[in-house]
Amino acid sequence: MAEISSGSAQYIYVCTRMRVRRSQLIPREDYLRMLNMSLPEITRFIEDTGYKSEIDELATAFSGIDLVEVALSWNLAKEYQSILAITPGELMRFTASYLRRWDIQNVLTILRGKTQGMPAGKIREVLIPAGALDRVFLDRMLAEDSPERVVEALKGMRLYPVLEREFPRALETGSFARLENELYKGYYERLLAETKGGVKGGRVFKGYVQLEIDIRNIQNLFRLRAQPTLEDVREMMIPGGSFTVDELQRLSTAESRDEFIDGVKKQVTLPPLLNVLEDLRSERPIHEVEIALTRVQLEQMDRVSKRYPFSITPILVYLEQKKYEVANLRALARGKEAGLPGERIRSYLVM
Amino acid sequence: MVDFGTAELTLEMIQASQVGLKAVGAGLAVGLTGIGTGVAEMGIGAAAVGATAENKDMFGLALLFTVIPETIVIFGLVVALLLLF
Keyword set for this entry (chain A) (predicted)? Predict the structure, then answer.
């Protein structure tokens, strides 16, 4: 009894905190207002929201676009770490597994930077230490002088077997694409395996991960349609969702867009996703397709989190929404810096 | 020792056992409602602490929500008092 009740109290505590934090994210109207602002105004505006401490802290070292970028990354990392700190037990394990994708991103950033001979300080600016590898560990990796040594430093970590297998080939071909695909495939595989542990909320979490895999695969297929490649499509697809890799490969060979969308629709059961796919029949720029699909994903996750209010889902929804908030602000700031018109920037925002 | 099998119940004995059972009833009324209140406050309290941790202004309202299930134990107390007096 004691364990059950204290368990549910922990869920309620964390999920309430996430809900409050979600209500503090930047609303749609504010994005629309920011579209009419200049870069310094945007900086000041986000300083008034949740990014004050980072902007104040970094204002002496950076200015302009760099200040916004670095402050956003720092804030994201800090936010994710604080979530890990307040989530207890089982929830924390799921959350940490979910956040492991940032490790992949950081490791790849370091490897790419090192192979191109970038200085460590420059690489450090773009790292987002939100996963299991913390700032100290990343700094140690940055201090290594060659990419091979960086890989060696990861020995014993979960990423190491894939890195060891694929890295020499990546160096040889000069392209990290295959390594990256393999790492993410490993990540999703691991994530799905963890949901099978029979723990509370595992089933919901699994549905969530599968939805993400599906959306990612469909996005990739749209990308492949926009820009056909000679490489093997199978290698780019993530197994474990509601499509098998064979089906995805068949879909990628569909002649016309209509045929392709019909094929995807046969497998998908989610009504909002079906609506969006119907919408996408007309030719649209690829980033709009991706954003439409991402929005479906976020909305569906939001819906699931309301159905299971005290489970892992409210936490994951917040993690995702925060990620897109940071991505939006970055797109806004970059777009303004490049002098793009508001309409153009708007089409890149997920809101 | 009184032999209950054969002894006749006197009026005093009956009255005494009635008083005793009333006391047991009063105890149960307060005790069980207390458990009910505790269970109800568990969830609310957890949410209240969570909300207050994020936003300090929530404290007053959160405290108010947390003590609302106290009414249950107060009902129990009222019933207990009615039984006893």
Answer: ATP synthesis, Cell membrane, Hydrogen ion transport, Ion transport, Membrane, Transport
Asked if A348 contacts A116 with a C-beta cutoff of 8 angstroms, the reply is no
ipTM of the complex: 0.79
Q: Which residues of B touch A14 (CB under 8 A)?
A: 50
**Residue ranges for chain A with pLDDT beneath 50:** 1-5
A17 at interface of B, judged by CB pairs closer than 8 A: yes
Rounded Cα distance between A20 and A218, Å, is 32
* Structural domain that includes position A1: 1-86+319-334
Using CA atoms, how far residue A274 sits from A77, A130, A279, B80, in Å, is 34, 33, 9, 61
Check residue A6 and give its pLDDT.
Answer: 53
Domain count, chain A: 1
On whether residue A49 sits in a domain, the answer given is: yes
The number of residues in chain A equals: 351
Topology of B23-84 in CATH? F1FO ATP Synthase (1.20.20)
The pLDDT tens digits for A246-294 are 777 777 777 777 787 887 777 777 787 888 887 777 777 778 888 888 8
Burial A96-128 (b: 16+ CB within 10 A, else e): ebbbbbbbbbbbbbbbbbbbeeeeeeebbebbb
Tokens linked to A68? 């916004």
- pLDDT band at residue B67, thresholds of 50, 70 and 90? very high
Query: CB B53 to CB A5 under 8 A?
Result: no
Show which of residues 22-61 on chain A sit within 8 Å of chain B, judged by CB atoms: 24
Q: Is residue A55 part of a domain?
A: yes
CATH number at residue A39: 1.10.132.50
Interface membership of A293 toward B (CB under 8 Å):
no
Nearest-Cα residue of chain A relative to residue B62:
A16
Asked, for residue A250, whether it belongs to a domain, the answer is no
How far apart are alpha carbons A254 and A261 in whole angstroms?
9
Tell whether A64 is covered by a domain: yes
pLDDT in tens, B6-30: 667 788 888 889 999 999 999 999 9
Residues of B in contact with A86 (CB under 8 A): 53
Q: Within a 10 A sphere around the Cβ of A131, how many other Cβ atoms?
A: 23
